[in-house]
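Dear H.,

Thanks for agreeing to be a second pair of eyes. The structure we're designing against is below in token form, covering all 367 positions.
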């Protein structure tokens, strides 16, 4: 099936190049081919059986091909040659065997030319319509790219002050500088700040029009500290202590963007905890894989539909207003995009016995 589709696509491409391409070489080639084809057809049939067996209708196909492929002057030239071969240069009328009268071959030439002109007009209109559609599509694409670039730039500018706000708030929390009466309000503020940082970071990463190098802020990190930070953020979903983390000795350090890496890991680990039974562990194994650091998150959930990787960046499996599970809606598409920006990948494997193993790879060659 795939071979058949490929062959059909190749044939369509060849026809498009021969009939629709506007470059000079192919135009000259097609013109010469049409004229040569008409001459050979006439000569061969004349040699084999004479003009009494040569039907003038064969030239209709050549005239239509010339009208589709060539501009008006070239098409009319081919049409005139076809008319001459089917008219004055053909001594006998193929239907009666009588000598052709001037009125007959003049009418035939006029018919060829009319067919050529009408076909050329229709093809020209089609080409104009295609050019307009292409121009509109290009404008829409440029507009979408421009919007994405603006959003990414704004997200990038928001990222630094939000990081400062978050850091100061954490410092106040660590110093116990928040009065007891304001602790609930402070926790709500921190949760909202974290969600806003996630949103801004994801938007900047997914919609960054300037490439990963513009948005990334890489540094050398201690892998256990990163995992500890992520674990503390997902603790609300891990009241039963189901999260088990194992870091291999050769993966103690990681050189990457802290915020993006933590957000990616947190999203995957939150999903694993969210959808796994309360009596089942979520196992995270960190190891070295060449220039990559591998994070394998194994759960016992219902599995992940990889088709969601092809949907919108913030698509959630349940996007209704009555969904039971809350969350930013980072989406597997955005998660895969962040992994890609970090120089790695995001893949899924079925876990023996049920569940999913999410395999996160993050580049870390600059340690």
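And this is the sequence the design step returned. I haven't edited it by hand at all.
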């Amino acid at each position: 099936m795939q071979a058949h589709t490929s062959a059909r696509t190749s044939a369509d491409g060849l026809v498009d190049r021969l009939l629709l391409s506007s470059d000079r070489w192919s135009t000259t080639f097609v013109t010469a081919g049409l004229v040569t084809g008409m001459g050979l057809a006439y000569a061969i049939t004349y040699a084999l059986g004479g003009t009494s067996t040569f039907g003038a209708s064969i030239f209709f196909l050549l005239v239509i091909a010339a009208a589709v492929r060539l501009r008006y002057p070239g098409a009319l030239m081919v049409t005139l040659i076809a008319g001459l071969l089917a008219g004055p240069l053909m001594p006998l009328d193929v239907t009666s065997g009588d000598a052709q009268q001037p009125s007959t071959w003049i009418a035939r030439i006029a018919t060829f030319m009319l067919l050529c002109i009408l076909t050329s007009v229709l093809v020209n209109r089609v080409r104009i319509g295609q050019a307009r559609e292409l121009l509109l599509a290009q404008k829409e694409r440029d507009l979408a790219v421009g919007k994405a670039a603006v959003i990414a730039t704004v997200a990038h500018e928001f990222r630094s002050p939000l990081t400062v706000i978050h850091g100061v708030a954490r410092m106040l929390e660590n110093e116990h500088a928040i009065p007891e009466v304001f602790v609930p309000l402070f926790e709500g503020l921190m949760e909202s700040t974290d969600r806003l940082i996630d949103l801004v970071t994801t938007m900047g990463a997914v919609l960054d029009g300037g490439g990963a190098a513009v948005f990334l802020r890489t540094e050398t990190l201690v892998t256990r500290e990163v995992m500890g930070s992520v674990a503390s953020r997902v603790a609300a979903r891990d009241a039963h202590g189901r999260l088990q983390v194992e870091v291999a000795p050769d993966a103690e350090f990681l050189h990457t963007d802290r915020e993006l890496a933590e957000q990616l890991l947190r999203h995957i680990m939150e999903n694993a905890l969210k959808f796994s039974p309360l009596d089942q562990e979520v196992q995270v194994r960190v190891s070295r894989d060449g220039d990559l650091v591998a994070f394998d998150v194994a759960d016992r959930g219902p599995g992940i539909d990889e088709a969601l990787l092809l949907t919108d960046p913030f698509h959630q499996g349940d996007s209704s207003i009555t969904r039971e599970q809350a969350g930013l809606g980072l989406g597997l598409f955005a998660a895969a995009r962040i992994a890609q920006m970090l120089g790695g990948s995001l893949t899924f494997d079925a876990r023996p016995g049920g569940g999913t193993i999410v395999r996160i790879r993050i580049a870390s060659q600059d340690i």
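Two observations from my side: The radius of gyration is 35 Å. The first helix runs from residue 2 to 19.

Warmly,
E.
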